[in-house]
């Protein structure tokens, strides 16, 4: 499937389908969805991905991504 902006793929982010450009990395997805990635943890297909590996982690059709925000409270 191609569109004028190039090939697209569908991933599931926090339980909801989302279309992204082919070649999208986890880092790009987190940046797109969060204004403050400093307090974020991410997992792809139930495996936590260390922050240092986000730029090298490409997303594939059907991947399941969980983006979690750290919350402090008492």
Bulk shape: globular
Mean pLDDT: 91
Number of helices: 1
Largest sheet: 6 strands, mixed
Residues in β-strands, percent: 35-45%
Taken together, the total number of domains comes to: 1
The computed structural class is mainly beta
List low-confidence stretches.
Answer: none
Could you tell me the CATH topology label. Ubiquitin-like (UB roll)
Q: Can you give the helix content as a percent range?
A: 10-25%
User: Strand-and-helix sequence, N→C?
Assistant: EEEHEEE
Count of distinct strands: 6
What would you report as the Rg, rounded to the nearest angstrom? Answer: 13 Å
Give descriptors for this structure.
Thiamine biosynthesis protein ThiS, mainly beta, ThiS/MoaD-like, about 70 residues, Mopterin_synth/thiamin_S_b, Ubiquitin-like (UB roll), 6-stranded mixed beta sheet, about 10% helix, single chain, Beta-grasp_dom_sf
Would you give an account of this structure?
- The protein is mainly β.
- The chain has one helix at residues 26-33, and strands at residues 2-3, 6-13, 16-21, 40-44, 47-49, 64-69.
- A hairpin with a 2-residue loop joins strand 2 (6-13) and strand 3.
- It is globular, with a radius of gyration of 13 Å.
């Amino acid at each position: 499937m191609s569109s004028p902006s190039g090939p697209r793929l569908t991933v599931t982010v926090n339980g909801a389908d989302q279309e992204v450009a082919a070649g999208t990395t986890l880092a790009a997805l987190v940046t797109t969805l969060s204004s403050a990635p400093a307090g974020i943890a991410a997992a792809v297909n139930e495996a936590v991905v260390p922050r240092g590996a986000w730029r090298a982690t490409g997303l594939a059709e059907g991947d399941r991504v969980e983006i979690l925000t750290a919350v402090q409270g008492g």
